[in-house]
Specification:
Layout (H helix, E strand, L loop, with lengths): L10 E2 L3 E2 L17 E3 L4 E5 L2 E7 L6 E10 L18 E12 L2 E7 L3 E3 L5 H6 L5 E13 L2 E5 L1 H6 L9 H4 L1 E4 L5 E8 L2 E12 L13 E12 L17 E7 L5 E7 L11 H5 L10 E5 L5 H12 L2 H6 L6 E5 L17 E6 L6 E2 L15 E5 L2 H13 L13 H19 L14 H4 L2 H7 L32 H11 L7 H18 L22 H17 L8 H26 L6 E3 L6 E2 L2 E2 L4 E3 L3 H16 L8 H6 L4 H29 L3 H26 L2
Parallel strand pairs: 9-16, 18-19, 18-20, 20-22
Antiparallel strand pairs: 1-2, 3-4, 4-5, 5-11, 6-7, 6-15, 7-8, 8-10, 10-11, 12-14, 13-14, 14-15, 16-17, 21-22, 23-26, 24-25
Length: 723
């Protein structure tokens, strides 16, 4: 690095000198109108210029940039709801480094995709000849001295992509930025970050909908930009198994020049205080140096706030299993009076935002830095209309066993319990966990209807599965509310322990060895930790239990029961809209539940074989493909005969469709099309299985199954024609 003093005068307006030879800005050299903000970089604003005074100690460090939407323009086309573009949305983090090179400061893109096992090897020296960082921008040095360097940064902040919304232009549905309207309205400095409020105007991305024109408009976006200093030392890298956690991929360059892939899990920084290390090793619970705290948007309705805190705290037992107490919490975002230092767009704060939208969804992101996979700058999003979909799900899945589900407005306590399920799942994602669609495949039909069993084991082993409520329950079954919805399970607690526990060892390498030894022992002996192949029949979404025929029979019988009740005559337009949503939920669940059973036709179980041990988290032997028994396949065919080849006339009852002003023929056509798709997909799977089979007896069995399914399809087609 080259450091030198530059004699340079900068004239603002009427020749006011801001710098002089060998000195950085100081109180004696500032023009009267200069605004000074002290912080990580001292910031100087005068006229239309902005400067950063960068301490030399902060060169060759890494920084993260996030842009948070503080207010967004209202789209005139409210029919096209998008997932992003709401207050609280965070873009990034994006990372950069600052390096001083002669009379320039280079802003670069740090590269961390490659790990060199032996920096002294010949292959490592060759690899290091390639550029290690990509240059974003070269910024002239205005002045340097006294251990600081001055650069003009205002133009870069306004016009460089890194600090704008352009990296997410498609998600935000924006196009051209009107640069002349950019305005930096506020700058705040902290010891480890700078916070800037920037107003930008964009034209929208006009995407026409079928049969509609797309209006063009200009919208003003208020954004909060946070530039924060990254920790000097990254957390240790933990290898993933390709399933349990979200991962980033790295390449490891070995001494012999070979490259291997290293999947690195995403996780938060949970560290043990030096004085607590011995206690931790003895198995005592210790508090981490910096617990994970989620702050709750004050725009959340008051009735939901407590349940959000409870949802986040549901993860505490999992962290206790990993050796940490009070490792995670949630708090209502403080007001400026309560905590003047709190800032929603400071990316040191994890945040849960509430979005008024027709989007029936929520999301839990895992933004991380590239050195180690450390999660940072996390904003969870919850759309207000997610409450519509979970209430409809609960009605379809538990309405037969819980009369409260049939009320037009669900009781507040029930609404809060449903929202807790959503939030707990999304927080699991933001802790790094992937979906595990195998978690719902453990319990039998009898266990799912047994309150004592459910108290101990829950519906499934993972809240990261797409299982919602206990649709195995029949009218008259007595099961606690907490046992009617999915809870944090044994798999979830295990996954947090595997990702966050500090295992025994004096070095990170020794700790990784111990961690993987523990992983292999656990996987071999605990079937509840199963994470089946995505092709496995047991890894379906929205399913429940270890017997699709038995459980989904209960589910469809529950739907029939609900259509038979005297609840389908709305008393107001509001009632009608609610009941239409619930009717749609019934038809959607009918299609889901028949689909789960159809998957057995030509489908397989993929049984993991641990007899030869494991390597990098996977059994050395390939998984064995196993088919259903002939006896179970007969149950599958009977289910399809009873519930598909015999159309669900109860779902198309004219009294029901007339009361809700629904087009009965249109509904019949929709359901028929879905079931014919199930038949076609099943026939295709069976055909492929037959073509791949070599055993003569198995081929004959598959040929017979193919004919049986074709006959059932013909019966279904004929039955629908008669409706």
């Amino acid at each position: 690095m080259i450091t030198r003093n530059i004699l340079l005068s900068i004239v603002f307006g009427s020749a006011c000198s801001l710098t002089a030879s060998g000195q950085i800005m100081s109180d004696g050299t500032l023009p009267p109108d200069t605004k000074v903000t002290k912080g990580m970089f001292d910031t100087y604003e005068t006229g239309d210029k902005m400067y950063w005074s960068v301490p030399d100690s902060l060169f060759d460090r890494e920084y993260s940039v996030t842009t948070t939407i503080l207010s967004a323009p209202e789209s005139p086309n409210r029919g096209s709801e998008t997932k992003y573009g709401y207050a609280g949305d965070m873009i990034g983090p994006i990372y950069f480094s600052l390096h001083k090179q002669g009379d320039e400061v280079w802003m670069t893109d740090p590269q961390h995709k490659r790990i060199i096992a032996d920096p002294a090897s010949d292959f490592a020296r060759i690899a290091m000849l390639n550029p290690q960082q990509r240059i974003y921008k070269r910024i002239p040095v205005v002045s340097s001295g006294e251990g600081r360097t001055l650069i003009e940064i205002g133009n870069t902040l306004k016009n460089f992509t890194l600090f704008s919304m352009e990296p997410a232009y498609y998600d935000m549905k924006i196009s051209m930025r009107l640069k002349e309207r950019d305005r930096i309205s506020d700058v705040k400095g902290k010891k480890d970050c700078l916070l800037m409020r920037i107003s930008r105007t964009y034209k929208n991305m006009a995407i026409p909908m079928p049969g509609k024109s797309a209006p063009s408009y200009e919208g003003n976006w208020e954004t909060g930009v946070c530039v924060s200093l990254m920790p000097k030392n990254p957390i240790s890298v933990k290898r993933g198994d390709g399933k349990s956690y979200f991962e980033i991929n790295k390449s490891v360059l070995a001494t012999d020049g070979t490259l291997t892939r290293l999947p690195v899990i995403k996780r938060w920084r949970l560290e043990i205080r030096p004085e607590d290390r011995e206690r931790y090793r003895r198995g005592e619970l210790v508090e981490p140096v910096n617990p994970i705290i989620f702050y709750i948007d004050r725009n959340f309705p008051k009735m939901y706030r407590k349940s959000i805190i409870e949802a986040v705290r549901e993860w505490r037992p999992a962290f206790e299993q990993a050796g940490f107490k009070n490792a995670i919490d949630a708090r209502l975002a403080p007001t400026a009076k309560e905590d003047p230092d709190f800032c929603m767009y400071d990316n040191h704060y994890a945040y849960i935002s509430w979005k008024i939208s027709g989007m029936s969804n929520a999301y839990g992101p895992t933004p991380c830095e590239g050195r180690s996979g450390e999660i940072m700058g996390c904003h969870v999003g919850v759309f207000s209309s997610v409450m519509d979909v979970v209430q409809n799900w609960y009605f379809a899945q538990c309405g037969a066993s819980d009369a409260e589900a049939r009320k037009t407005v669900l009781p507040e306590s029930l609404q809060c319990e449903l929202l807790k399920m959503v939030i707990t799942h999304e927080i699991g994602h933001s802790l790094g966990l992937e979906h595990n669609h195998s978690g719902s495949s453990m319990a039998s039909i009898d266990q799912l209807r047994d309150n004592d069993y459910l108290n101990k084991h829950g519906l499934g082993t993972s809240i990261m599965d797409y299982v919602r409520f206990n649709y195995a329950l029949r009218p008259g079954d007595k099961v606690d509310l907490r046992n009617r919805r999915i809870q944090l399970g044994e798999y979830d607690r295990w996954a947090i322990e595997w990702g966050y526990r500090v295992f025994e060892g004096d070095t990170p390498e020794e700790q990784e060895t111990a961690r993987w030894k523990w992983y292999e022992e656990q996987k071999k002996t605990r079937p509840e930790l199963a994470f089946y192949d995505s092709r496995d029949i047991r890894s379906q979404q929205e399913d429940l239990g270890n017997d699709h025929v038995a459980v989904n029979t209960c589910g469809i019988e529950n739907l029939k029961y609900l259509t038979s009740l005297d609840i389908w005559t709305p008393k107001s337009l509001t009632d009608e809209q609610v009941m239409k949503g619930r009717f749609r939920a019934l038809s959607d669940h009918y299609n889901l539940w028949t689909g789960h059973v159809f998957a057995h036709l030509g489908g397989y179980y993929y049984e993991e074989d641990y007899s030869a041990g494991m390597e990098t988290g996977k059994p050395r032997n390939p998984a064995r493909k196993v088919s259903d028994t002939p006896e179970y396949m007969q149950k599958v065919l009977k289910f399809i005969q009873d519930y598909v080849a015999t159309p669900p006339v109860w779902l198309f009852d004219a009294k029901l469709t007339s009361a809700l002003h629904l087009d009965r023929n249109k509904e019949i056509k929709r359901i028929r099309g879905q079931q014919m798709d199930h038949f076609d997909n099943a026939l295709q799977r069976i055909g492929k299985a037959k073509d791949a089979e070599k055993d003569e007896a198995s081929i004959k069995s598959l040929e017979k199954l193919l004919n049986d399914v074709k006959q059932l399809k013909e019966k279904a087609e004929a039955a629908y024609k008669d409706m």
